[in-house]
Design goal:
The protein is an alpha/beta fold and 181 residues long. The chain is built from 6 helices and 7 strands, in the order αβαβαβαβαβαββ. Strand 6 and strand 7 form a beta hairpin. Helix 1 packs parallel to helix 2 and helix 5 packs across helix 6. The protein is globular, with a radius of gyration of 15 Å.
């Protein structure tokens, strides 16, 4: 399958990490991307999975619905709903991708502890929310599972949360970090 991620608006400098995760994991693996915006990086991952011939499940989580925090005005909720439709259109060439239109914490509660192989966190970049994301998703990883994320050098909140909660993490690119459970 040919990559189509360049046709989707988004920011990604972690293509190599995603490709490595697909190579590293076997059939039956389960991946989650938390914070998908319009599906740019998710589409890259989905095509890598398809081209590998492996049966790897990919779920993408973003707060694209009426679950938007109540502090948002109604017009902001409408934007979330519009973005949900856009990500569905953008990922339509890879219909096996499961789009979960929920907040990070609500989505994490849908998974049993110890069931995921890889979680990539690139959602809200404020310190408190990065901490919540890490704490919500770490228990969901299998022993040896990998949590990674984006914007380590771009946002103080990301850097602070990762440094505080994930001792022993490693930088795998200029902005991506990785932690093995």
């Amino acid at each position: 399958m040919e990559h189509f991620f360049k046709n989707i608006e988004g920011w990604c400098d972690f293509y190599d990490l995603y490709a490595d995760m697909v190579k590293k994991h076997a059939d039956g693996a389960h991946f989650v991307e938390v914070g998908s915006w319009k599906g740019h990086s998710a589409s890259f991952m989905a095509v890598e999975i398809a081209n590998s011939g492996k049966n790897i499940r990919l779920d993408v989580v973003d707060i694209m619905t009426e679950e938007a925090p109540p502090v948002f005005r109604k017009d902001r909720v409408a934007l979330f709903l519009e973005r949900h439709e856009e990500i569905k259109r953008n990922l339509s060439p890879v219909p096996w991708v499961n789009i979960i239109p929920k907040s990070s914490e609500a989505a994490a509660s849908m998974y049993s502890d110890g069931m995921l192989d890889f979680v990539y966190v690139d959602a809200d970049h404020h310190y408190e929310n990065v901490c919540k994301d890490i704490m919500a998703w770490i228990p969901k990883l299998k022993k040896g599972g990998i949590m990674a994320g984006h914007d380590y050098h771009n946002y103080e909140g990301v850097r602070r949360a990762v440094n505080q909660l994930l001792p022993g993490f490693q930088l795998v690119s200029q902005n991506s970090w990785m932690y093995v459970v």
